[in-house]
Design brief:
The chain is α+β, with helices and mostly antiparallel strands. It folds into two domains: 82-364, tricorn interacting facor f3 domain (Immunoglobulin-like, Sandwich); 382-497, Neutral Protease, domain 2 (Orthogonal Bundle). It is built from ten helices and 26 strands. Strands 6-9-4-3-15-18-17 form a seven-stranded mixed sheet, with no helix packed on it. Strands 20-21-22-24-23 form a five-stranded mixed sheet, covered by helices on one side. A hairpin with a 3-residue loop joins β13 and β14 (217-218). The radius of gyration is 21 Å and the shape is globular.
Length: 504
């Protein structure tokens, strides 16, 4: 994630409710977080049929060739048994609330006795702006009773961790289907992943996110107070997503846009999206001014919300330039489109696979930083609660190479609390959020620049490209970094010196 601080400083990215039913949508400006208080209005249109058993796997994309003999020649294909997700969103007329329904087909690689979803809109920062996610139904294989645990949510706010206890364990390799009904109350003026301003609304991670990490299990790290941090999810097949809004809305979202249904009740419009492998979803809707262009075969759309001075044509050009630079360094862009929504009240940027939420006036390092995140977090995922440096340090490093800001970053003073602690988890940084940015973003980027200098630019760049290709569509780890740079002991020494890797 990225919070634009200055040209040289960027920083990114319980109870029992099982018997509740999905409330009707409301056009009221005072949407209630309480199921019993929800007024009646048209209900959410149902999702399509349950997901098919075998997800389609896209063709692997070719990465930039390198001299390394063990380097993959193409991006690792997404797991053929990755989760299949269908989503339906229904935005009410005044934009204050979104109703949603989610269906998931999940095939674990370990035996499970529960399903765990994260409700990230209930994290402290979004909750403080009046954002709420309420889940009214969660069912899987006959199990209907679920609990919400705080896991970092403020007092009085629905928890961020939903646990659905299964009636019988599900063994590794066996699929299970789940369905959840929920709503999201959009806080006005929110400086984070979910919010609204005037006629513009945005919801990133605005659905219960299946919190599974292959080979490890459920990601239960508590939510943090930091800006737009921190999520964990394996890449899933977004088989279908519909977004129904008022006819005047432009919708920018993760995935490739499909058919548009007009003439819905009330003159509304339903838009369809899909994506073969993404780990999260962003949607923004409103009367955006949009500029579109193509860079290297990738369609780019930048929408600017009403009342903002940003020029969508200029912003599209800058995103194209950043994309061109980063493709040359890290390999082929891994998604079908790049959709960017410039919205009020956000003071930086927040990345999503194939999509970006950006605040106004972000013409400095933040824009480039968010585009790098399409490789580090979007394509190569990580557990952002456990290993935030795996995406934030790389994103700041890539931006530094693109913009030439490395020398300025080397001049930054690292707080004593963070010196040589690049690899600390978010639980370490949460009590000292002011130290997080310089200690992980800046110190981590300088660490990577130092390693590049020690190894040699051409060889280091080749190793990074190999790492991206090998770890595409997965959740990476520090152990994967050790393997990727095992042939460059000088780099590993620097990583260990800065605390990004455990002592050798």
């Amino acid at each position: 994630m990225a919070l634009g601080i200055s040209v040289l400083a960027v920083a990114c990215s319980g109870g029992d409710g099982g018997d509740a039913t999905l409330p009707a949508a409301s056009d009221s400006t005072e949407a209630s977080a309480s199921p019993s208080a929800t007024p009646s209005a048209p209900s959410l249109p149902p999702l399509s049929e349950s997901p098919a058993a075998s997800p389609a796997t896209p063709a692997a994309t070719t990465a930039t060739p390198t001299p390394a003999a063990s380097c993959p020649t193409s991006y690792a294909a997404p797991d053929a048994r990755r989760p299949i997700v269908t989503l339906a969103f229904w935005r009410n007329a005044d934009g204050s609330r979104v109703l949603g329904q989610e269906k998931v087909r999940f095939t674990p690689d370990k035996t499970i006795d529960e399903l765990v979803f994260r409700l990230w809109p209930n994290a402290p920062r979004t909750a403080s702006a009046g954002v709420r996610m309420n889940v009214y139904r969660a069912e899987a294989a006959g199990a209907k009773r679920f609990t919400l645990e705080s896991a970092g949510a403020p007092p009085g706010v629905p928890g961020t961790l939903l646990r659905l206890k299964l009636l019988t364990p599900v063994p590794a390799g066996q699929s299970i289907d789940a369905v959840l009904d929920f709503d999201v109350v959009l806080g006005a003026g929110s400086d984070d992943r979910v919010g609204r301003s005037g006629a513009t609304a945005w919801w990133g991670s605005g659905f219960p996110l299946l919190a599974w990490e292959s080979g490890r299990g459920w990601a239960r790290e508590p939510a943090t107070r930091a800006f737009a941090e921190a999520t964990t999810s394996e890449a899933f097949d977004l088989r279908a997503m519909t977004v129904e809004t008022v006819a005047s809305d432009v919708v920018l979202a993760t995935g490739r846009a499909g058919r548009v249904e007009t003439g819905r009740p009330g003159g509304r419009v339903r838009r369809h999206f899909s994506a073969p492998a993404v780990r999260d979803v962003m949607v923004a809707a409103g009367p955006f001014r949009v500029s579109r262009r193509t860079e290297g075969g990738v369609p780019i759309a930048v929408g600017v919300a009403p009342g903002l001075e940003d020029d969508p044509v200029q912003m599209a050009r800058l995103h194209a330039e950043a994309l061109r630079s980063h493709v040359g360094r890290f390999g082929r862009y891994g998604f079908t489109d790049l959709q960017v929504a410039v919205v009020p009240s956000i003071r930086g940027g927040i990345e999503y696979p194939g999509a970006i939420l950006l605040g106004p006036g972000q013409l400095d390092s933040t824009l480039s930083h968010e585009v790098v995140h399409q490789w580090f977090y979007g394509l190569v995922g990580d557990n952002q609660g456990r290993d935030p440096w795996l995406d934030e340090a790389f994103a700041t490093y890539g931006e530094a190479l693109h913009r030439g800001s490395g020398p300025a970053y080397r001049q930054k003073t690292i707080p004593a609390y963070g010196v040589n602690r690049v690899g600390k988890p978010m639980t370490y940084w949460d009590p000292r959020p002011g130290d997080y940015f310089r200690s992980v973003y800046i110190q981590g980027a300088v660490m990577l620049l130092d390693a590049r200098e020690a190894v040699g630019a051409a060889r280091f760049d080749a190793l990074v490209r190999c790492y991206v290709a090998a770890r595409a569509s997965s959740v990476s780890t520090v152990q994967a970094i050790e393997r990727a740079f095992g042939s460059a002991p000088a780099a590993l020494r620097i990583f260990r010196r800065e605390g990004a890797l455990p002592p050798g």
